[in-house]
Write the structure tokens for this entry.
Amino acid sequence: MEHYSAAARLTEAASAAARHQGSGDLLRVVLVVMILGCVLTGWFLLRGYKRNDD
């Protein structure tokens, strides 16, 4: 039984998806995930600056 790393599995899945659907759909998914990740990271970081001056 061979051991595959997570990166190798992701690369294999991405190449299989690119062969099956073309690179356009894969690129759209990557961009949407990247944008959502940036928004969530910004929200997480900026919520720490909220002040409670009661």
